[in-house]
Amino acid sequence: RASAAALAARSLRPPRGFGAAPRSARVSAEAGRGTRCGGAVLGGLTQGLSDGCAESQAGSAAPGRGRFGESGGKRAQRTVRQQIRVIVVAGGASKEVLIKVHACGVNPVETYIRSGTYARKPALPYTPGSDVAGVIESVGEHVTAFKKGDRVFTLETLSGGYAEYAVAAANRVFPLPEKLDFRQGAAIGVPYFTAYRALFQKGCAKAGESVLVHGASGGVGLAACQIARACGLKVLGTAGTEEGMNVILGNGAHQAFNHRDPNYTERIKACTGPGGVDIIIEMLSNVNLDADLQLLSHAGRVMVVGCRGRVEINPRDTMSKESSIIGVSLFLATEEERRECATAVLDGIEAGWLKPVVGLEYPLEKVAKAHEDIICSSGARGKMVLLL
């Protein structure tokens, strides 16, 4: 079970055609010390969080292994060692690139994978992190699109982005324009590709339709607001704080609603009129799905981007409007669909309407705190990033 294993970086042979490792690398002074192994350097971190966001307690274990223990009291906690290791960078294929990481985005799905509750279980040991922004250190012998020194962002990594260096397949790497900094670059990949996929590849959105974005002040939510507004949709968004609502309104939403208001769904109905909402981008379907079905228009669509549990609905609510509930998974996108997303995203950057909003920032050694905050915070305000 994935939740019973600590996070750690993979250690594979350095790839042929890759440059030599940097002469030195600094790892967390707070975390456990690692051993330099030659080749490029990866900082892999291990940390477990107890259920319900109870406070994690630092323990100790042999290098390269994590363990879960129990603390005293009525409620057991998982206790694990926090450590950053220095190891050989993964690689081996000629179509990969090595990136010096400057920033890495933190996504909610990474907390689900870490805890073992996500359907997609990674091989262990495992280092999270898909949204890397940094500089190309070296390229495989068959890579022609990039060269050493290029500024890039990624959609996915092979070795994990919670690290000083990361390996990625060249077709998951994209140029980062000078107009965006590395923090913003780390807020592009998963949020914007997911938002575009939800709206157009799965939701079939059209200009003139209305879209309600739940949890719109987070990374995917703000991406959806910006994309939908640029493509001619009427954009409604929800957030849990006044600050979050202001962020939404500043990033494409025509109207913002506080989902902590007991009457917020009635306010949405008053805004949309009897026609309802054409598309709902749903980040927390286990809480909102039943209410979403009441807000939809005829043939409306709920796009399920996030879920943290089970939910009970009445299927008749879909029959009465011939509405649809559609799951969205970026992992299942085809290569052609990824290229379509990339074209839309890069065009948005060039046009100037795609402006990633960076929220809380953490050093790499505070990633456990980042995982706790992304699940337990009272309201998101942009994309959470790790800085290196």
Automatic annotation (TrEMBL):
Protein name as it appears in the record: Uncharacterized protein
CDD domains: zeta_crystallin
Keywords: Acetylation, Cytoplasm, NADP, RNA-binding
Family: Belongs to the zinc-containing alcohol dehydrogenase family. Quinone oxidoreductase subfamily.
Database matches in SMART domains: PKS_ER (SM00829)
PROSITE patterns named among the record's database cross-references: QOR_ZETA_CRYSTAL
Molecular functions per Gene Ontology: mRNA 3'-UTR binding; NADPH binding; quinone reductase (NADPH) activity; zinc ion binding
Pfam families in UniProt: ADH_N, ADH_zinc_N
Keyword Endoplasmic reticulum attached: no
Subunit structure: Homotetramer.
Compartments (UniProt record): Cytoplasm
Positions of region (Disordered): 53-76
InterPro entries, A to Z: ADH-like_C, ADH-like_N, ER, GroES-like_sf, NAD(P)-bd_dom_sf, Quin_OxRdtase/zeta-crystal_CS, Zinc-ADH_QOR/CCCR
Main location: cytoplasm
Matches recorded under Gene3D superfamilies: Medium-chain alcohol dehydrogenases, catalytic domain (3.90.180.10), NAD(P)-binding Rossmann-like Domain (3.40.50.720)
Annotated Gene Ontology cellular component terms: cytosol
